[in-house]
Amino acid sequence: MSTIKTNQITHLTNSGTANLQLDSSGNTTVADLTANAVTAQSVTLSNNLTVNGNTTIGNSDSDSVTFNATVTGSSFEAGIIGEIRMWSTLTAPNGWLLCNGATIGNTGSGATNESASYAALFDLIKGTSGAGLYGNVGTESFISGDTVKLPDFKGRMPIGVGQQTNTKYNSSSDNYTTSGTNFAISATGGTEDHKITENELAQHNHTTTLGTGTATISDPGHRHSVQKSQLAHNHSISPNPHNHSYTDPTDNTGTGEIGLEEDGYGNTSDLVPTNASVTTSTSLSIGSTTPNINETTSTASGVAPFIDSATTGITDSGHTHSLTVNNTGDSVNNPASILNPYLAINFIIKV
Known about the structure:
The chain is mainly beta. Among the domains are: about 170-200, no CATH class; about 230-295, no CATH class. About 0% of the residues lie in helices and about 20% in strands. The protein has one helix spanning about 120-125; strands spanning about 10, 20, 30, 85, 95-100, 105, 115, 125-130, 130, 145-150, 170, 175-180, 195, 220-225, 255-260, 270-275, 305-310, 335, 345-350. The strands form 8 sheets. It has a 3-stranded antiparallel beta sheet, with no helix packed on it. A 3-stranded antiparallel beta sheet has the order 4-19-5, with no helix packed on it. A 3-stranded mixed beta sheet has the order 7-6-10, covered by helices on one side. A hairpin with a 5-residue loop joins strand 15 (about 255-260) and strand 16 (about 270-275). The longest helix is centred in the middle third of the chain and has 7 residues, at about 120-125.
């Protein structure tokens, strides 16, 4: 076998950089290469690389690919199995599934998403025995045809695993020095709204204004009875004094003087001539004290008449009013929303 030694190969028409350069370490620099197959221990590309068809780089997990340039493309779907990203449309790209709680499994398992290539993702998201993840038990078997659920991000937001300090309120010191919740992997929680309880309300006052009103008491009429001995009153005679006139049409004595003269106290004196007009001057006074009350007939012995009245005085010895304050709003039927401003987006997972 013949050996040719050279450090570069240049086409006859190429006056610039050599098409192929060789160095003493065995490295080869190719300006432009088109080949059906290339096998090499190390390939360094300084310009453009176009690969048509399927390309496999590496043959074990220890192999790696390093890109120092920007990788672009409308169908660039690289990712790590189990990696979760946000995604802008309703359907996942090739090589990814929506994180919507659907099931995955081997072909024929009856899962929502079936493929023999899902084994690696299956084992990642099922968790382990006694510590299942995302609602899974952790003992499911891919080859036995079991299914497991994908993470479900419908209506949920992610939060970091673990615990932060100084994130909760400390009532004893009135500051935020209490450690926060220790979130476990795949833990779920929270609500979109909240029913406010009395213990969550700050101490406060309610101001109530009472309206004014008038109470009307209607007395249909009533009676008071008193003893006569307690009732001082006057009887009056009018006119006082007054005259009594008396004419006797007969004269039985023949004297022409018949009739009696009354002195006003029941005593009689001289006869007066018949047909005379006798005038007595009677002055009668019945003394008592006020008030003047018109007496009516009493049916009970020793009981003075009734006194009718249509009015009365009422004395209030004290009373209370019950006041009920009705709060507006209803936290049972109208709980308060605790949603932050949001923009809905999909989450996808690499298979």
